[in-house]
Amino acid sequence: MLINGLLIWVFPDSSILDSGYAMLDSFFSLTPYLLLMLIPAITMQSIAGEKANGTFDLLLSKPIRFSDIVLGKFLGSYTITLLALLPTLIYPVCLYFIASPTGNIDIGGTIGSFIGLFLLAASFVAISIFSSTLTHTPIIAFLVAVVLCFFAYYGFDALSKFPIFYDFDDFVSSFGIQSHYESLSRGVLSGKDFIYFVSIILLFLVFSIGHLGRKFRQRKTTFSTYTITLIALFLVNQPVVTQALGRIDFTEDKRYTLSQTTKDILKQVDDNIHITIFLDGELPSGFKRLKTAALDMANDIKHYSQWKN
């Protein structure tokens, strides 16, 4: 709360007060990097601490399954994470009253952005729980979790910038959390993003269960479970499934929803369209918002045109 408070209310480069707009964009863009440190610190004792203290064997003596242990650790750690995030709800409340005029804040978009933040936190918790199963030392579990969460969040987006991936950069970046979280942080919940986050959570929970039980079942059985899980998650993330779920635009003016006229025009276009947006460099806050909105609109047009083809 202290770091968030300084970043989004005091420091001029990211301050909401200096931006002149009653929006929490800076909060939702900065918080993931704070969670990269907070969540691994919460979860590092979950399994590794049990092993280090010798109490993990006591857990194994109880009539519970490895799935019960992992799910219990996940829910416990996620509850603590939510309790850490809940006080930040005071930010939109404050913004509501200091906006001019009072209440001039997109409540729907803010709710959608918080949904994205909660899904992001759940993904980091699942990854960190898996990291804690890999070692007997909590501090190593913390470091591994930080690295894995950072790569899962930012790594694929960074890889997509390499020239070798130029022709399919969107495909590469779609494997990372950042592109999906940024879509949610706008206040738009799509079936593609929701299924992606659920898939990440399930994948790492299955990995955690498999790693803990590797000494108690055949290796072939463990790898078969991994393979089936990967295939199932790959199938449910196909466009046929994700597009069927649709999308929910929480923003008040539905600014991230293409009009029917735009969709009709895109259906009739057969040639490639290249868009150049002349907004870069050191820009005033208003033009930065215009740049972001233009890029969002261009990406929405691109994704829709790819799907309809």
Regions with little confidence, pLDDT below 50 for 5+ residues: none
- Category by helix and strand content: mainly alpha
Shape: globular
Number of strands: 2
* Separation of the first and last Cα atoms: 46 Å
**The biggest beta sheet, please?**
2 strands, antiparallel
> What portion of residues is helical?
55-70%
Q: Biggest sheet, strands in spatial order?
A: 1-2
Rg over CA atoms, rounded to whole Å, is 22 Å
Descriptive notes:
The chain is mostly helical and 309 residues long. Helix content is 70%, strand content 2%. It has two domains: 21-252, no CATH class; 258-309. The chain is built from 16 helices and two strands. The protein has a two-stranded antiparallel ribbon with strand order 1-2. The longest helix is centred in the middle third of the chain and has 27 residues, at 107-133. It is globular, with a radius of gyration of 22 Å. It starts with a helix and ends with a helix. The relative contact order is 0.10. The mean pLDDT is 84.
Features:
mainly alpha; 2 domains; globular
Question: Strands, helices and their partners?
Answer:
Blueprint lengths: L1 H9 L5 H4 L5 H19 L4 H6 L2 H5 L5 H20 L4 H9 L8 H27 L4 H22 L9 H5 L3 H9 L2 E3 H22 L6 H18 L2 H7 L1 E3 L10 H9 L16 H24 L1
Antiparallel strand pairs: 1-2
Describe the structure in brief.
The chain has 309 residues and is an all-alpha fold. The protein has 16 helices and 2 strands.
